Amino acid sequence: MSVTLKDVAQAARVSVSTASRALTGTGLTSERTQQRLTRIARELGYRPNPIARGLKTGQSRLVALLVHNLTNASFQVMAEVVQARLKALNYQMLLCIGGDDAQQESDTLTTLVDHRIDGLIVVPTGKNGAQLKTLAKDVPIVCLVRRDDATDLETVLADDPQGAYLGTRHLIELGHKRIGLIVGRQDTTSGRERLSGYVRALREAGIAKDDTLIHAGHFVPETGASCCRKLLDLPRPPSAIFVANHEATLGALRVIAERNIAIPDDLSLLCYEDMPWFEWHRPAISIVDNGARDLANLAVDRLLHRMDAKGNGNDGVREYRVGARLVQRDSCRRIDAASKPKSPKSKSSAAKPAKV
Amino acid sequence: MSVTLKDVAQAARVSVSTASRALTGTGLTSERTQQRLTRIARELGYRPNPIARGLKTGQSRLVALLVHNLTNASFQVMAEVVQARLKALNYQMLLCIGGDDAQQESDTLTTLVDHRIDGLIVVPTGKNGAQLKTLAKDVPIVCLVRRDDATDLETVLADDPQGAYLGTRHLIELGHKRIGLIVGRQDTTSGRERLSGYVRALREAGIAKDDTLIHAGHFVPETGASCCRKLLDLPRPPSAIFVANHEATLGALRVIAERNIAIPDDLSLLCYEDMPWFEWHRPAISIVDNGARDLANLAVDRLLHRMDAKGNGNDGVREYRVGARLVQRDSCRRIDAASKPKSPKSKSSAAKPAKV
DNA sequence: GCCAGTTCTGCAATCGTTTGCATCAATGTT
DNA sequence: AACATTGATGCAAACGATTGCAGAACTGGC
Description:
transcription cis-regulatory region binding (chains A, B); LacI/GalR-like_sensor (chains A, B); Rossmann fold; elongated; HTH_LacI (chains A, B); DNA-binding transcription factor activity (chains A, B); LacI family transcriptional regulator (chains A, B); alpha/beta
């Protein structure tokens, strides 16, 4: 069917081994035959069969990225980054969707090693630590976004404590004292870390932590909505809400719209993680960017390093943190009318239609 | 490193060939040895090496899905559907991102056949027809969402003419006579087809086509915004806008919000293709659902059929159309106060906050 | 012109499977 | 009891590459 090394060798009247050596450039062939063979190979349209090669070398030029889903915008950009990087190095990315489900993750993992992938970047569910640990002996693995505490795998994390801190501090600097927090489950790292960043910012500013302002849960939009309602129904509702979980954002926005609450005039809103439509929303929604792009790039860097280092890429570092970044748009407003009357960055919004 | 067939054979004191036959269940071994070998294989934790097997059989149990990007919500659900289906059949999905770029598509395609994929579902750019045609000789291929006119590949398409027709008719039935259309480039199939559906609905209803109401272009949100502005700035602006291109929706929504136009009171809005946040938007946005889920499922069906039929799965059918569906939410409103005063499905919105 | 040293090339084994063919034992037939 | 038939097994050759080892060809020094 397709042209094999044998065909090339025959056409060039040399042995297969010579052909192989010439084409892989081992430097063990004469300059002349090398050139002649590359030419002939090109003419014949020879493309090495990665399967055959893989059988012999134990490599596949396949690198897998295992994420929970593709609806999460962060995972999308990560996938695109990883794909682009790998492709440039002549690897194929195997994108797998694990659905944040232990069983599915486990199945996928075994299939992947069966296929002799050369490397793996995984967003672990945290429930297959033992398996990951075993696999790590055979394949370079880098964890992304989440840590699996049962392993000591190299892990690239977003700096959630810092991100939450940055966001909260921003709101405080705008004069907010009662800041609602809608955050993820406290049995996830990110849930805990984002809460801690929030708390730290409050403490530094000397603002007492008010537990009625903090809502944590396993988030889907519905939960985001109900948390948001609870916050707004408070006797003294917050002047700003920090939605530190992107799933919850949809629900919160909905409730805010339903109640005709004007952002940022009546309420400031800050979200964690970007979504492509946030900047097209009106008002454009300010966010804390978790740095998905940087995360993906760093993960690829680390993985490649491990893959090169053949078994011992252990630089001692176990954990990398990628800095978060505040992206100010129009959904947060300065409120302390008394002390600092200077107009905030965000525009006055709604009232007069901005002719464009 | 890992357990090979030889190990199993040795442990069972049979030859490798017997082991192979027993484990692949060719029926050429005695019941007893078959059971004994499966047991031993399980005990030893034997997992067949797909690479070695692939080398011999020419198969890889890899099926590729090549899409343009992952930001498009339709592609996301398609990817998830394809992955789920394939997985159930013990195939691994290779998800590739082609970026709607001819060169990248071409590169990816060659890498994929190099890896001896067993099948391919591709959203073609339309610029590598020749290549696709050649590859189709080696690998079963099904085109998805777009047709490549240079080939005669089996293609699963959304029924865009019907979808656009349905949407437009819906608006007409609600009493709208001036319906703005924001649609994709006319050199794409979907662009043309959606326009034609719109025109047909108009004609059927005896409404004259007004070219000032139709805007087509290569869409990014910015273009969507400018088209929307043009429509709203018309001396007699439309009472409804049909955004028949999902990229454009963001921009349109933005302009509408900027100008403080109330939906659906001042303007009805209908979009093509769903986005996860559409139903969380306030008002929830009515859409024409292109049936991404069904498309993906059908594409998988056809591909599997071809893969089974080994070379001749040609049933004569070249093109499959998956019906579109109207999903009424709250962004379209009945307007002919005179003839049919019955209140529309959509609620009155804005004015009084709906306590929830 | 011969020999040691260096390059280059080819033979053949190997990776882990599958599979055509031959062998062999067990069974049934006469 | 001899023979044909069936069913289970093993041997060995593939699949398409890589690679250790040995031999061939060339180089230069004497």
